[in-house]
Design a protein that fits this description.
The protein is of the alpha+beta class. The chain is about 55% helix and about 25% strand. Helix 4 packs antiparallel against helix 5, helix 7 packs parallel to helix 8 and helix 8 runs antiparallel to helix 10.
């Protein structure tokens, strides 16, 4: 008898000194034991009260059902809820683990171990809000960057292009006047330099913001991208898409193009590949983008340290999607992006 009392006292000493709240409830759903509480009521006054009196009214039904399932099945369950004083103020958020106590082969009562997670939830909510603000800031910065790229590309193409065109016209006039004079060959060389400069201006302007993207959409822009990025580097690249003539808003088109651009740029710079493939598959409001190469493969360290790949993920997340990157040593790399797109008509309807 003494040993039993000693064991009971040791058990109670342990239970009453743990930081969690431990309570038992019977089939009548009343509290039979509680070691400690954040309530203004001492444990002695809580014993005998109905368990659900300490649960917010809007949570009582499902919390009661969770406890009922422990009594009926004998299986433990976990849940998180907001506790309160009986008809009083809120106590905070608690993460709870409920388990059965058997007697005579039947569930006699339920023990609940509750940890106060109010502070961790507050920190989590603040972190989530901070991340949301950062995403909005990143989206605004990306939009501003794209606007600036468009402006610079237009100025380079229009202003510098016009000046070079005027210079070439003057050189052509000078060429005809000199005919076969001493400076004739020099004028021809100058015309070649101007022609090369004009081609460079067009290439730089297009790389900043390809006009095909705004005029003909992502498919035409991707065909141009493959020609400029891959063919120039001696890389064979194919493009297949079911995009068709689906009208997309500017953000969707730009995300498709920039994701493929970053993926193909990484292939050319780092993969040491001979072949690459770009696939765009549309199903309803979802598009799957896949860029595959047969290069050396990307390591986990390279994936984690690449700001360009991080930019891909941010673009996809802004459209409710995601990006995954798989690399296999000696067997190439696959970049997969999943986006949820809006058509131009849908965007107008939502506005």
């Amino acid at each position: 008898m003494a040993d039993s009392e000693d064991e009971s006292q040791r058990w109670r000493a342990v239970v009453e000194n743990v930081p969690e709240t431990i309570l038992t409830i019977g089939r009548d759903r009343r509290i039979h034991f509680i070691n400690r509480t954040d309530s203004s009521l001492p444990p002695a006054q809580i014993v005998g009260l109905h368990f659900l009196d300490f649960i917010q009214v809007h949570d009582r039904e499902w919390v009661g059902a969770a406890i009922e399932s422990v009594f009926e099945t004998g299986h433990p369950c976990s849940y998180e809820t907001e506790a309160c004083e009986p008809q009083g103020p809120i106590l905070g958020w608690y993460s709870c683990r409920a388990g059965p106590i058997f007697k005579g082969g039947q569930v006699d009562s339920v023990v609940i171990v509750a940890s106060n997670v109010t502070e961790s939830r507050r920190i989590h909510d603040e972190l989530r809000q901070s991340q949301a603000r950062l995403r909005r800031l990143g989206a605004r910065q990306q939009s501003a960057l794209e606007d600036e790229r468009r402006r610079i590309a237009r100025e380079i193409h229009d202003e510098l292009g016009q000046m070079l065109t005027a210079l070439r016209i003057d050189l052509s006039c000078l060429e005809r006047r000199l005919e076969n004079g001493a400076d004739y060959e020099r004028v021809l060389v100058m015309k070649q330099i101007v022609d090369g400069t004009m081609a460079t201006v067009r290439r730089i302007s297009s790389s900043l913001r390809p006009p095909l993207l705004d005029e003909l959409g992502p498919r035409a822009a991707l065909a141009w991208l493959i020609q400029e990025t891959c063919t120039r580097a001696g890389l064979t690249c194919s493009l297949s898409t079911t995009l068709g003539k689906t009208p997309l808003d500017e953000e969707c088109s730009l995300a498709i193009f920039r994701i493929c651009q970053e993926a193909l740029t990484n292939v050319v710079r780092h993969a040491r590949a001979s072949r690459a493939e770009v696939r765009l598959t549309v199903e309803g409001d979802r598009i799957d983008i896949q860029v595959t190469d047969d290069g050396v493969g990307i390591s986990d360290t390279e994936k984690d340290g690449s700001l360009g790949l991080l930019g891909l993920q941010e673009r996809a997340e802004r459209l409710g999607g995601s990006v995954t990157i798989e690399g296999h040593p000696g067997r190439g790399t696959t970049v997969r992006a999943h986006l949820f797109l809006r058509s131009v008509s849908e965007e107008g309807a939502s506005n």
